[in-house]
Amino acid sequence: MPFSDDWKGKTERLILLLFYSTGMRLSELMNLKPGQIDFANSQIKVLGKGNKERIIPAAEDLMEQLKNYIAERPAASIAGSPLFVNEAGKPLHSRTVYGWVNARLKQVTTIDKKSPHVLRHSFATHLMNNGADINAVKSLLGHSSLAATQVYTHNTIEQLKKVYQKAHPKA
């Protein structure tokens, strides 16, 4: 989907990519600061629910985009401010980010829910569908119990049924 080349477009694109690539919560993204990004180790440190800290690995392409975004941040950005700021260097509001995600998801899907959490859910579901261990997904999402992560297994079960039907001689 196309994004404008202005600051808003760059910010919007990176936010969507970050949600889907990391499974981050909206609150985690809103509080993310440039200093929490470890470029040398390709990982992002977030503070989740209950002030629990977790490390999320990130793809090289995402890290490169984060590096470029930080380099282009408006000069008016206050030191120690959140990563995502508007053109004036002021922190974005969560309502703004939610609205951007909602509008973009309306362009590409007919599902009822269109929120940052949908991208978190997609992150987890795609990991599970591609063979990720449920305990690893639990850690990546910052869940305290496995029960919270098991909600993402339903799509995996459906995928397993399809594989079984297609591949098993007695199916």
Structural commentary:
The protein is mainly alpha-helical and 171 residues long. The chain has a single domain, classed as Intergrase catalytic core (hpI Integrase, Chain A, Orthogonal Bundle). It is built from 8 helices and 3 strands, in the order ααβββαααααα. Helix 1 packs antiparallel against helix 3 (60-72) and helix 1 (7-22) crosses helix 5. The chain is globular.
| Helix/strand order, N-terminal first | HHEEEHHHHHH
Structural class: mainly alpha
Large-scale geometry: globular
The domain tally reads 1
Please write the CATH class name: Mainly Alpha
Measured between the Cα atoms of the first and last residue, the distance is 40 Å
Q: Identify the CATH architecture.
A: Orthogonal Bundle
Query: Sheet with the most strands?
Result: 3 strands, antiparallel
Number of helices: 8
Task: Label this structure with key terms.
171 residues; mainly alpha; hpI Integrase, Chain A; 8 helices; 7% strand
Please give a quick description of this structure.
By secondary structure, the chain is mostly helical. It has one domain (7-167): Intergrase catalytic core (hpI Integrase, Chain A, Orthogonal Bundle).
